[in-house]
Each structure stands twice: as C-alpha cells, then as structure tokens.
Amino acid sequence: METLFSVTVGVLTACSVFLILRGRSFPVVVGITMLSYAVNLFLFSTGRLTIDGAPILGTNTEYADPLPQALVLTAIVIGFAMTAYSVILAVRTRGEIGTDEVNEQDSGESSR
Amino acid sequence: MLTTVIHIAFVLFSLSIIMNFWRLAKGPHLPDRILALDTVYINSLALLLLLGIYQNTQTYFEAALLIAMFGFVSTIAAGKFLLRGDLIE
Amino acid sequence: MSKVFPAPFLTLSLFAIWLLLFNSIAPGVVILGLIITTLIPLLLRPAWPDFKTIKKPHLALVYLVILIFDIIVANFKVAALILGRRKHLKPALFVFPLDMTDELPVTILASTITLTPGTVSCEITRGRRGILIHAFSDETPEETINVIRQRYERRLKEIFQC
Amino acid sequence: MWQQHLAILPILIPLFTALLQLLPWGDRPQPKRRALGLASSILTLVCAALLLVHVNQNGMLVYALGDWSAPFGIVLVLDKLSTLMILLTAVLALPVLIYGCYTEDNLGSHFHALFQFQVMGIIGAFATGDLFNLFVFFEVLLISSYGLMMHGGGKFRVRSTLHYVLLNLLGSALFLISVGTLYATTGTLNMADMAVKVAQLSGDEAALARAGGFMLLAVFGIKAAILPLHFWLPQAYSTTTGVVAALFAIMTKVGVYSIIRVYTLIFGPEANELVWLAADWLWILGILTLIFGIIGMLGTRDFRLLVAYLVIVSVGTLLATYSFSSAAGISTALFYLIHSTVITGALFLLADVMAFERGKTASRIVTGKRMANHNTYAVMFLIAAIAIIGLPPLSGFAGKLMILQAAPVSTSGFWLWGTMLLATLVMLIMMSRTGSKMIWHTLQGKPNEQSAPIGKRVAIGMLLSLSLILTIFANPIRDYTDSVADELLDTQSYPTTVIAPSSGEENQYE
Amino acid sequence: MEALNQLPLWVQWVIAFFILIGAVFAFIGSLGLAILPDFFTRLHAPTKNTTMGIGGTVIAAIISTSAQGTLTLNELLIAIFLFLTAPISAHILAKAALHTELPKFAPTRDLRDKEDAYQHETDK
Amino acid sequence: MNLFYIVFAPMIGALIPLLLRRTSRPVKTIATIAIPISCILVAWPLAQQTLAGDIPTAIQQWLPNIDFDLAFRLDGLSLLFVSLILGIGVLIVLYAHYYLSSKDNDSRFYACLLLFMSSMLGIVTADNVLLMWAFWELTSISSFLLIGYWYHQSDARRGARMALATTGAGGLALLAGLLIIGHIAGSYQLDAIFAAKDAIQAHSLYIPALILVLLGAFTKSAQFPFQFWLPHAMAAPTPVSAYLHSATMVKAGIFLLARMHPALAGTEFWFITVTLIGLITMLVGAYFALLKHDLKGLLAFSTVSHLGLICMLLGIGSQAAVIAALFHVINHACFKAGLFMTAGIIDHEAGTRDMRKLQGLLKFMPITATLAMIVTASMAGVPPFNGFMSKELFLDQALNQHLFGGLSWFVPVLATVGAALSVAYSIRFIHDVFFNGGYKELPKQPHDPPKMMALPVLILSLMCIIIGLLPMLTVSGILNQAVSSVVLDNITVKLALWHGFNLPLLMSAVAIVGGIVIYSQRDQLFTFNRQFEGQDAKHNFERIVQSICDSANKLFTYIDTGSLQRYMALVLISVIVLVIPQLFEIVTLEGSREQLPVDFVSIVGASVLMVAGFATAVLHRHRFIMLMMLSVVGLVVSISFAHFSAPDLAMTQLVVEVVSIILMVLALFFMPQKTARASTGHRVFRDILIASLIGGIVATLNYGILTSDFETISDFFIANAKTGGGGTNVVNLILVDFRGFDTLGEITVLAIAAAGIHKLLNKLKPFMPSSDIDGRPWHRIKHPLMLTNVANLILPMAMVVAVYIFLRGHNLPGGGFIAGLIAASAMILQYIANGVDWVKERFNVNYQSLMSFGVMIAALTGVGSWFFDRPFLTSWFTYLKWPLVGKFEFATALLFDLGVFLTVIGATMMILSNFGKMTTRHRPRQEGN
Ligand code: NA
Ligand code: NA
C-alpha cells in the first residue's frame, strides 16, 4: 500500500508541476491547487498510513498519528485562502491586461 | 459470508466509479461529463457508507453526508455554468 | 405563535433532522434541538418564501408511500432497459400540460416525474403551463401523461388544495 | 509576571488593530483608521522595545501558548535575535505607516488592515519557535503582502503581483513538503526539539532529513531573494507603491532570518551528520547574488529598480557573511541587516515621493522637472546614498567595515571583499549617476507644482535619522549583535531553555 | 467486522441482501451511464439507479448498526437528501442539454410543439 | 581635545553658512573664514609642541569592536599638511568671496568647502588608518559636491561623477589594502603599523596590500594612468580648483604615500613602482600641460606633473628625497594656488580662459601679470623662488639614485626633460596671456580685479619669494618634524638657495634653456598632437560606464524576460539541484516498517487519482473539463483521507475542494475558456522532465518516510486529549487547543485573503462573454424554478447540519471550519439559485464585520486566559450538570471554534458576494433567442 501511495503522490505532484509550468494563469492556478492536494497527501502521510484508526478516543485501540492530520487541516484552509486569492487575481489580471498569459508581453517567451 | 458480500460490493462500486470516470473522460458533451462527475460523487459516498459498515463505525457518516450535499452543490454550479456562464448573478 | 414558529412544518422537519443527526433523544440533545430548530427558521425567515403549505398531511403520507413504491419499480424498469436490447429503446420528448401553477406543487410534481419510471422532467415551459418530459420507455406519451395526471398531479392538487 | 505576556503583545496588537480596521467605522472611516493604526504602531514599538529590554536583562523568554510547553505545544521563543528583529520591524513600520497615512492609504481599500496584518505576520515569524507555526506566519505575511502589493492597482502591478503570488504559492507547497519530511524523520515540530533530534540522526534517515533541509533552503531562498530565486523581487518592488515597497524592505529579511535561525539552530554546529548544512551553498549563492545585484544595478534605468537591486545586494552580502558560520560573521551580518533594512526602506519612500513630484518622468533615471521640494530631496538623497553605499560617516560604512573585518583572511574572504567592494563602487557610480540625472540635471522652467505632503518627508526623515542613530550607537549595537550571535551559536543551551522552561516560570502557571 | 459476524445469521443475510441490492443497482446505473446512446437516455440511469444504490446501502448500514443494540437512523438523512436533490440535478442538466441542443439518439420522438421547443419557463 | 576641534569645527561649521543663507555674502564669508582661522588659533599651541618634537594626540573611542576610534595625532607630517590646508583654505574663502557671482548659491559653496576642509584635516591628522580612510572617502564625497557645484552644466556633472568614481574606486582599493595591513599588524593604529614594518614586508600579502594602497594613492593624486579625471575636475569654480590642486585632494595621495612610508617603503617593489609611476606621470603631465589651450587645463596637467615629481621622490625614499618631496609639497601648494587664482582672475575679468583668445593682457592687468609671473617662475623652477630649490633637490635625488643598476642614468635625463617641459608650459602661461602681441576682442573688457581679490595671490607670491630666500627661517622647522615623522628618525633639514655649481644646477640650466626651445617649437607639437584630438577622457569615461550599463541592461532583458514560466522552472530546478544529491546518498530507501496490504478499492482509487491528475494536466487547454478532472482528484484525495483514518481531513478536503472549484468556475466566466496550443515540443519536453524529477523526488521522500518507523510527540496528544483538553477528537483538540495558535493564524489568513480579494475586485471591469464557448447565447432563465425551491428548502437543513457538525467537533469529526463552510455553501446555493439581489434583500449581513468578529472572538478567547494568569489561548473546560439537560461539557475551546465558524462564513461569503456583484449590474445584452 505504501508503494502505491507514494507513487500516486509522486504522479500527482508531477502532473501539478507540469501545469504550473504552463503559460496561462488559469492552468497554473489549477496546477497549484492540485499540487496542494498532493502536498496534503504527503504531509498527511508523514504520520504513516493507518487503516481503521481514526484518532477519536474510545473508537479504536490503535490511533493514527493525529498531528499531521491537524497540520494538513491548517494547510488545507490556508491553501483554500490562497487558491481563492490567486483565482481572483487571475481574473483581475485578465481584466486589466486583456490576456491571461502569465509572461510579460513583448518578451520572447510569450510566443513560445 | 457478509465479508464476502461486502468485498463484492466494494468491487462493484469501484467498477462503477471506473465506468463513471470513463464517461467523464470521454464525454462527449459537457452535460455528459457533469452527470458522470455527479455519479462519481454518489458512488464514492456509497463506498464510504460501505466502509462504515465494514469497519463497524459511525466515523464516516458525516463525510458521506457532506459528499451528498457538496456533490449536489457542485453539480448545480456546473449546470448553471453551462446555462448562464455566470454562477452568481 | 406564528411569530415564534413562522413555519411549523419546517420547524418540525428540522427537529426531526436534528434528532436523526444526533441519533439520540437525550434531554440535552432535545432541548438544544428545540432551541436551534426554533431559532433557524426565525433567522432564515426572510429567505423562506410563502410556499403553499400542505393542507392534507395524511394524503401527503399516502403520496410518499406511492412514490417510494414507484421509485423501486422505476429502478427495475430502467435496469431492464439498460441491460436489455437497444431496439427496445424508444425515447420521446413531449410536454405534460400542467393543471396547476403553484411553485411548490409544480416542483414536487417535476421531481416525482424524474424519480418515477421512465421519465425525466427537463423543462418547465413558459408560464408553468407544462413540463417537458424525456421518456425512456416504449409507452406512448399519452399513456404517460395520463398516468402522471392521475397518479400524481391529482393527488398533489388535493394535498395543496389548489 | 505581566512581562510574560509581553511576548505575544507585538503579535496581538497588530492583529486586533487590523480586525478593528475591518469594521465599517461610519461615513468617514479613514481618519479613524489612521489614528487607530498609528496608535497601534506606536504601541507595538513600545512593546517591542520593552520586550528587547526584558529579554536582554532576563534572558530568553519562552511563552508556551495554550500552556502547552514545548515540544508539544507551540511556543514563542523570544531570544535576542527574535526581539531584535521584532524591534526592527516595529521601528520600520511606524514611519512607513506615517508615510502611508498621507493619502497613500486612499488608493485602494483595506490598506490599514492589511498593513497591520503584514506587521503581525512578520513579527510572528520572528517570534515563533515552531517550524509549522513559522509556515503559518509566513502565510499570514504573504497573503497580506499579496493584498498590499496590489494596492493602487494598475496593469504592471497586477502582473507582478500575479508572478509574486504564484511563485510564493509554489514556495509554500515546498515548505510543507520540507516540514513534512523533517517531521517524518524527527517526530517533532518545535525547532529546538528538532535540533536535538536531528543531531541523533544517522545514515539514511539523516539523508532524508538533509533532503528536507535543502528543500527548505529553496523555500527560504525565495523569500530572501537569493539567486536564482530572486526574480520576483525587482519586478515586485519596482511596481508596487513606495510605502508597500518600504514595508517589504523587511520581507526579504524574514527569509534571511529564517535561514539564520534554521541553519544555525537545527542544522548548525551541533547537527552531527547535518552540521552546517547550508553553509557551502549559502556561500556560493550569496556571492552570486551579490554579483547579480551588481549587474542588476548597472542595468537598471529606474530609481525604484535600482533600490530593488540594492536589496538584492544586501541579501547577498548578508548570506555570504552569515555563511562563514562564525560569531563575528553572524554579528556583523545582523548589524548590516538592521542598517540595510532601514535605508532601503527610506530609499523606497524617497523614490516614491520623488516620482510623485517629478510627474511624468516618475522614477526613471532621466532628466526631469524640478521638484516642488527639490532641495529637501536632494539632501535626503545624499544622506541615503551615503548610507547605502557605505561611505563614511553613516551606518553603512560601519556595517561594511565590520563585515570586511569579520571575513576570514582566506580565499573566501577575498571573494567577499572583492565582490563587496565592487558592489560599493557600482553603487557609488550608479547612485551618483542617479542623483546627477534626477536631482542635478533638471529641465529649465518652473518646478512641478505637485507637492507631497510634509508628513511624507517627515517619515523619510525619521528613517534616515535612524541611520544616524545606528552610526552614533554603532558600538553598543554591535555589542548587542555580538551577544545575539553568541546566544545563537550556543545551540546546546537553546533547546534546554526552550524545552524545559526554567522552574521559576513554570511555577507561575502551576 | 468481528462485531457484524457475531450478529444472527438472518440479520447478516438481510444486511448482505441490501448491500447487494445497492451495489448491483449502482453498478447498473453506472453501466447505463457508460453504454446508453445519448445524453438523455444516459440521464435516466444514474438518476434512478444510483440513487437506489445508495438507498440499499443506507438501509444496510442502518440495520447493521441498529442490530447491535442502538437504533441508528442517521444514514437515512443521506438518502433523504439524495432523493430531494437528484431530480434537481437531473433537471438542470437536462435543461443544459436541451439548451445546447445535444444530439439525440436516432429513434427519439420529438413531440414538442415549436413553441415548446424554444419557449422555456419565464423568469420569476 | 583641541585636535578634535581642528578636525570637526569645519565639519560642524559647515552648517553655519547654511543657517546664514538669508544673510548677505560678507556676513557669510566672515563667518566662514572665522572657522579655519579659529582652527589655526587652536592649532598654534599644538604646533609648538610638534615643532618641539612631541606628538600631540587625542583619542575618543567610537567603534572599539572594529578598532575604529576617533584617534588623531599632530606629528610633523600632519602639521605640515594642516598648515597648508588651513592657510590656503583661508585664502580660498577670501578669494571665493569675490569670485562667486551674485547668482551662485554661496551658502552651499561655503558649506561644501568647509566640509571638504574638515575631511582633509581628518585625513592628515588621523592616527588610525581606518579613520584616515573614512576621511579619505569624505573628501571624495565633498569634492564631488564641489566639482558638481555648477550642476546645471553638463561638464560639471560629468566631471564630478568621474572624479567620484575614480577616487572612490581607489578609496575602496585602499580600504582593502589597509585592512590587510591592519590584519597583519594586528591593529589599525599608526604606531602599531609602523612597528610591524618587518612583519608587513615579510608577509605573503605584502605585495597585494601595497598595490591596493598605491591604487588608492595614485587615483587620488591623479598618477598615471589615473590622471584623466583631474583636468575634468576643472569644471568646478576656480577657488575649488585652486584648493583641490594645491593643498588638498590630490595631495591626499601624496600624504598617503608619506604616511605609509614607514611601514611600506624600502622594498624594491615600492621603489620601482612608485618611482616609475611618478616619473611617467611627471612626463605625461608636463607634455599635456603644454598642449592645453585652457589656462586651467594647463595648470591641471602641470599639477599632475608636479605630483608625479613628488611621487617619484617618495619612491626613491631616501632621507634627502623625502625632504625634497615634502618641501616641494609646500612650494607646489604656494605657487599652484596662486596660479589657479590668477587664472580665475583672468577668466573672471576677461571672460575666457582660452590662451588662443587671450593675449597682451599686461597692459590691462599689470598687477595680475606681476603676481602671475612670480608664481609661474616658481613653478618653472627659476631662482630665487622656492620652486627652484625643491627642483634642485629633486634633480639631485634623480642623480643620486642607483636602484635601476646600469640603467639608472635614464632617471636624471628624463627628470631634466620633465623640468624643461615644465619651463616650457610656464613660459606659455605667461607669454600667451600677457604678451604675444596686442589686445584682441574679448567677451569682457579686462582689468585688474578688486584689491582684496588679488590679496590672496599676493600673499602666495610673497610666500614663494620668502621661502625661496629664507628657507631655513620659514620652513625648516616644520620640515624637520615632517621628515622625521616619515623616516621615523630625528633629522635636521638644511636648505639653502645656493648649492654651488654642481650637476643639478647644470641640469636646471639645461631645463630652462630646453624649455625656451620647446616653447618656441610648440606649433610643431600642436600639429603632432592634433591627430590624437577628440579623445576626451570625460566622454570616454561616460561612454564606458554607459556601455557597461547597456550591456548589463541587455543581459537582463535576456535573462529576466518577465517570464513566470522561467521563474517557476528556476525554483523547481533549484529544488532538484539541492535535493537530488541528498537522495543519492541514501543506501536503502526502504525502511523496516511493514507495508499494509493492497486492496482492490485502493488500486482503483489510486488509478483514478493518477489518471484524473494526468487528465487535468493533459486537458489544460479545455479548462472546464480540467476543472472536472480536478474535482475527481479532490474527491479521491478526500476519500483516501477517510480510508486512512482521517475523517476530519476527508470532510475538510471535500468541502474546500467543492468551494474552490465553484470559485474557479466563477472565475472561468471571466477567463478565456480555452487555451490555444502554445508550447513548443522542446518546451514541453523540458517541462515534463522537470515535472518527473520533482514528482520523483516527492515520491522517493514519501516512500522513504512511509516505510520507516519514527518516534513522535503525537502520543502526548492522544494521552492528554481527554484529561487536558476535555475532548475525544484528538485532531480537533490539536486544532483548537494544543496548536490553537496555528488555527488562529489560519483563520487570520482566511480573513486577510477575503479582504485582499475585496480589494482585487474593487472597480474591476472584467471581460464577460455574451455567449458560451460554442458561440451559443446563454440560457434566458437566470433562476430555474425547481432549483430555487429546493435551494430554499435546503438552506435551513444545511444550517441544522452546520450547527450539528460544529457542536460535535470537539468529540467527533467536525468542527468550526467545516461547519462554517457548510453554512457558507448553503448560502452559495442561494446565490446560485436566487441571485445576488435576492440574497442581499433578505440577508443584509456585513460579511466583513462578521469575519472580523469571528477572528476577534477566537483571539479574545485566547486573551481571556490572561485573567486566569495563564498564557494566551490556554483552554478551560468543565462538566456542568443542569436540570433537564443533564450533564454536559463546556469548553472555552468551543468559543474559539465559534470564532473559526464565523470567520469562515464571513470570509467565504465576502469573497463570493463580492465576486457575484461584479456582473450583476452590467451583464452584456443577450442576443438572439
Ligand atoms: Na433522477
Ligand atoms: Na455575478
């Protein structure tokens, strides 16, 4: 299971990174959002994987590590705030500039 | 026996999700995809319920309820997008 | 009374939901639930439109039973169609002419149509004069319209007295 | 007893102020918001000063939030370094806010709230003793900086904000991966405790932790604008409003602080297989950043951009100096940090106010109209230039001499000497060129009629006079940074203080 | 799982029955979504069958917990919610499909008047 | 302490003319001139001590940490220079009084001059080399301000910048050299450095240190090849030129050579370098002096030449050579100041300095001509003026050095050539201006200056004569001490005008005759030189700086293209470069932890996750589909959390994911819905490579972590949740209690984001498509009937659920955040179903205040614990027993969570309602249908 998990996280990360390297703001924002999913999985798994061990006292005998879960919760909320901001910033940028290209115009890269 | 049945159900639901996903990927039209996505939500919800039965726990109830609620909201949002482009007007 | 309980049916169903959620009838839960389910409709009162309220609750129960039965039937029917041969598929798009115009009954009827055998309501046509239905089975539209009229619309009109 | 709570006041005061400023405040809210913000900034400054005095007298202050002591709860660790940085932040924030209160805050909504949030985030980052909490405060300061950077709107600003935001979002993701890796190898989040645990790592576990540590370096590198992670900075600083850029003068320093903290405490002298983890890289990158800053200065045609590259140069200098891993290196780096923060802050404001009074030519280094307050700016420019270049008698020269003396007489020391002196020369040439073109060489005719409010000049004057204070009290300040460096390098007693607070303090809560 | 295996066998059978009902219907629904020829026919499948699939599973869950001593009905909420919302989702999607004039399966009989086809409900 | 006065009085006194700027010029001049005079008075008693062989010192600690103290000394060398600086300074102020026009800002002039004076005094009296360096740099700054005094003239600006850059660069080299020397000597105090002479000269860093120090000295005194800046400093007002060229600035370099002489001189390297450079400079300077048509240009290059001479003498380094050098310093100061003032008078009164235009002025300016002839004769080394004496000594030294072995003869020969050139340009100065035919039309009618303006020149000419005639009476005392402090020995100087017939005298004679010859043949020289004209150092300098700047600029436009893609790639590549080497060091990645078995559902889940992730990436050009794929990713991640025992996470992830997607869909309306294919294959390949490497790193780290065991602090939370926090949901307890501070920060972030978004949406006029992606007009119905009805039904239901989730968070999965988002989504549904206006009509809630109160409640809960003498955020809980209700728990953490709840609702609604408002008012008109 651990192998499967880490491969999945890796693939998800790679896909997100690919999106982050795109030239338009929207895919980049989506890439960052997806990266945050991957990172949350990663951070969560630093407490190692446990099945049937929700850290709710009295329900189980063995508990999953609650600390990374709490960290991921914080990270999710912060990620939400950041996603919201960047999405709307992308809209604003498009509103101001007229395009959603992330690169500066009249630079060599914009055509690429 | 019950264990076997639950395992079979797990497999059936999983296969359902795969088929939904296939439809989601294939389309061919946006309503198809949205419908498929909605179904993925519902089948996932079922998986969680099943997991609750399997582990004999109530822990997943809220998560399942939320999937039902939020699956609906997201489907409506997508549908509204197709109809009007703007969700909130 | 109507100031404290602007929508008694709502309060009641919310309280039921509350108990279902907590899955308990401990005094603390009940008391807190009464408070909360009284407060929420009060808070949300402006957002609660003037729905036509149910005039005949017992008929509503009957309607519910019929509906559940039909849903089960519908499931088998659709399952058969999915698994059956494609040539049995004779879909149709047609309008069910409405005999009532109130929002809530129309909504319930449209939902019922969707949940019951072989039909999905696609549009509520202009002026709530009809419901555009996509039917799946090989029944004729006339038959379907008749069933809907007799089995559901009639009952709804009674329940809501409209 | 109450001094205990002093530890958290510099975080809470801006927080509550910001929250209050989000409330509607009636028809003409701005005067009220200004008064509130200024009062709060003064209060923060007072608290920061008291805190510094307290810590200096009684030693490190460990504040266990929620009464959960380290390593289990989050603790604020107010050691000399933290209090110094907090005081610096408060000292910078006040004049910048004064500047902002003169119509700058009307350019967009929520300026005051975001400003206070930003201060809160920065101070929190300096205060916390917990790695994940550091992440949280990074996010607080980043999200408020995103908002502030947009202040005033406009095409260029929006695009550079977009770049800045997206880059930092990537940085935040990397931060989480690093924290996760470190937690997974050490089982703790408290930095002091992590230092203890890291020292016990060996073999493959140590390699994993090293990977986490290096990824963290990239994260802090973005914040500190080290080559090649600095790209956001010139664009961001040169497009945003002056007041925001001035406040941002401390932002890169948060990155530098984090590097100093993490790579001294956790991956420092006691870290066993991870000893001085980042020193070599910081050395090379610091020098490269310096060189890059030099080229950047040469290539720029805009005063603001020039100041932005000055920031980069200062970052390179700081990190290269820090990388010597010696008490003298750290101490002098800190001295230089204080100086460069204050002066670059002043320069950003100056560039802003000059751009305003120059009108069309703005901050471009070209001949323009005479400014309404030409002579004042001329004097201010001269003082700021002398200070930032590092010419006597202002603080920059003391800082530079200190660094040059602290550099070892070895190949690496000579590299630092060479690049620093070259940087000084280039600054000299570029600043004289800028002053000559923007102040000396003015078009014939009447001066521009737009005159910036006097409060703005007062604010710049306040910052510049800080340079004077830094000069006069250079020695006591250096003594203090020496003691900061000593405390910082005493990585053995730090964890014992943090993890098991002295019995006296503990009794208080029992 | 041990707790369930200790239940009386007939209870286990009942639970198993409902689970299977749920799973099979859900599967058929998803199958329909995958294989039916056009959007409108596909819409029928999950709308009815998947909802039913949940119903079965919910009942199974209720029995399995209730049979252990405490009456647990809260899963019912999920089912109620789904029955309440599924027609709406379907309705909105059908609207969208009609609006975008998705191609229909060839034998579909379009019995709308011209007026019906193009005149939808008015806004409130 | 008196020494401090001497140095700092002019510095502080610089404020006086500025303060007096509203008064008349005489007041300012008197106030200004009083300062150096007071310094002279203060210096007088100290000078007596020095002349008696003592060295008065003063010290005030400043930066003991870097061995930088305000330490001053007044030894002979210092005294010599202090006298020149103050003495000539007084004359310069007096002269400037008449020279400056009424339009000039005299306050600024005097202030800068005093500042400059102070810096020079600091250099020559500093007892600490770092302090000396500080004043050295101050002279650069103040001379920059002086040269650029007429900053409206391009020449002044450029000349000032070039001077600053050149001397500044030299200053930095000097600093490095001094630091090395100080490092070797272990101190920056002069005596310590002198004492460490042997150590310094034996050290491996001696040569570099020496080169660096010499660079400082040579740039400052405009030695070859750094002579180019000095003539352009002529753009300064003439009093400044007079001061800079006679007693100060350029003499600072000479002073430095003399000052460091005891520590650095005596080696072969010193000798060869300094002597040769001096010799070359002397010749080059003299040659160019002859070619200049500008009076000040001529004088400037003559300065260069004479400084070369002094430099050469210091290079030779013998006792006699030092005497000659220092003596010439005095003499040069006298005649050069006088010469510049003369040139200034001519310029002032005749309106030009061009020798081609000037001629026959003797008739109009007899006094000026007389004075000019005296000082020029001194410069030319004509007896009986002082210049002759020091030149004799110089020629003697040139003869007596034997350090070039068999080639030593060329030194005296070249020295004589230099002297001859010097004579030639001196003749030209006099002949071309005052004789050379009758008067020609000039811009002004020339006449002698006011008497007081000529007074300084008169004083200087008298000095030339008196020193020439009575050297032992006038300068020997000071020279004794000065030379003693250079050679570190007590010596007595013997000076006499007449040395008898000897070789130097012959050389002098040859020089004078040669000079006349050269001058008479000057036209050929001009013709020869014409081929090199058009080479202006100022323009060259400017061009070099400009081209460096341009190439830097070009480099930057190449490197920093404003391409976010490139920035992102750089960040990622940095991570790869930093991290991968560490991963290579891992021997066995797989740890000892036993793996969990894999089940079918997990495989399906993982596959769907990966495929959906992949599809999100691949379909990035079809944005809506991409979002749907992202939804799947989020959903499966959420389910995974549930599967691996994290129900709280599962819920939060789900809720956040849906709200985020809704936001993105909202945004999509204002964004292009499709992206044109843009990336080249090359670029895509690079991106895939980076992506795979980063993915690989993360997967590797994750695998290594997952398969190894570790010890964590988490057991503490599980053990203390119930007893310490009063709840059973450990995750929630960590959030609201153990690490409540994180949560406070997190909701703060949310609040800030909402405020920032509000800011972003202010006054935004977004792009709005009037038709969908296929060009179809939008559906006409804004709010479908069925949806509005059901949404209305769902709202209260969702609220109940939200309250439920909120309340049970402490003990079971749930909590304020999730509850807040449930409530918020129910409201979102209202917005979607009923529209902005509808909602606004019915719920007039100020979301911003709500959000603010939310965070406040959370933070105030934390502050509350202060009243119980506990740190911020300490939680408290108790079990209450009420009639009817029974026993229940109350925890302050719940209050904290309430804050979270309100913040989330407030922030989310603020974001969405603001977003919604954008289109409500001005939706583009519908077409068709
Ligand atoms: Na349905
Ligand atoms: Na809208």
TrEMBL record, chain A:
Pfam families: Oxidored_q2. GO terms for cellular component: plasma membrane. Gene3D superfamilies: 1.10.287.3510. The chain crosses the membrane at residues 6-21, 28-51, 71-91. Keywords: Cell membrane, Membrane, Transmembrane, Transmembrane helix. Its main location: membrane. Belongs to the CPA3 antiporters (TC 2.A.63) subunit C family. NCBIfam families: PRK09094.1. This is Na+/H+ antiporter subunit C.
From TrEMBL, chain D:
Keywords: Cell membrane, Membrane, Oxidoreductase, Transmembrane, Transmembrane helix. Pfam families: Proton_antipo_M. The chain crosses the membrane at residues 6-23, 35-54, 60-78, 85-102, 122-143, 164-184, 211-233, 245-268, 274-298, 305-324, 336-356, 377-394, 414-433, 454-474. It is an enzyme of class 1 (oxidoreductase). It comes from the Bacteria. It is found in: Cell membrane; Membrane. Residues 129-424 form the NADH:quinone oxidoreductase/Mrp antiporter transmembrane domain. It is a multi-pass membrane protein. Its EC number is 1.6.5.3. Its main location: membrane. GO terms for molecular function: oxidoreductase activity. InterPro entries: CPA3_Na-H_Antiporter_D, NADH_UbQ_OxRdtase, ND/Mrp_TM. Belongs to the CPA3 antiporters (TC 2.A.63) subunit D family. This is NADH dehydrogenase subunit N. It comes from Idiomarina baltica OS145. The lineage of its organism: Bacteria, Pseudomonadati, Pseudomonadota, Gammaproteobacteria, Alteromonadales.
UniProtKB/TrEMBL annotation, chain E:
The keyword Transmembrane helix applies. Keywords: Membrane, Transmembrane, Transmembrane helix. It comes from the Bacteria. The chain crosses the membrane at residues 12-40, 52-70, 76-94. Pfam families: PhaG_MnhG_YufB. This is Multisubunit Na+/H+ antiporter, MnhG subunit. It comes from Idiomarina baltica OS145. The lineage of its organism: Bacteria, Pseudomonadati, Pseudomonadota, Gammaproteobacteria, Alteromonadales.
From TrEMBL, chain F:
Keywords: Antiport, Cell membrane, Ion transport, Membrane, Transmembrane, Transmembrane helix, Transport. Residues 126-404 form the NADH:quinone oxidoreductase/Mrp antiporter transmembrane domain. It is found in: Cell membrane; Membrane. InterPro entries: CPA3_Na-H_Antiporter_A (IPR050616), MnhB (IPR007182), MrpA_C/MbhD (IPR025383), MrpA_C/MbhE (IPR046806), ND/Mrp_TM (IPR001750), Proton_antipo_N (IPR001516). This is Monovalent cation/H+ antiporter subunit A. It holds the Pfam family MbhD. Residues 683-770 form the MrpA C-terminal/MbhE domain. Residues 787-910 form the Na+/H+ antiporter MnhB subunit-related protein domain. Coiled coil: none annotated. It comes from the Bacteria. GO terms for biological process: monoatomic ion transport. GO terms for molecular function: antiporter activity. The chain crosses the membrane at residues 6-23, 30-47, 77-100, 107-124, 130-151, 163-188, 200-219, 270-290, 367-389, 409-431, 452-475, 495-520, 567-584, 596-617, 624-644, 650-672, 684-706, 785-807, 813-833, 845-868, 888-915. Residues 608-673 form the MrpA C-terminal/MbhD domain. It comes from Idiomarina baltica. It is a multi-pass membrane protein. Residues 65-110 form the NADH-Ubiquinone oxidoreductase (complex I) chain 5 N-terminal domain.
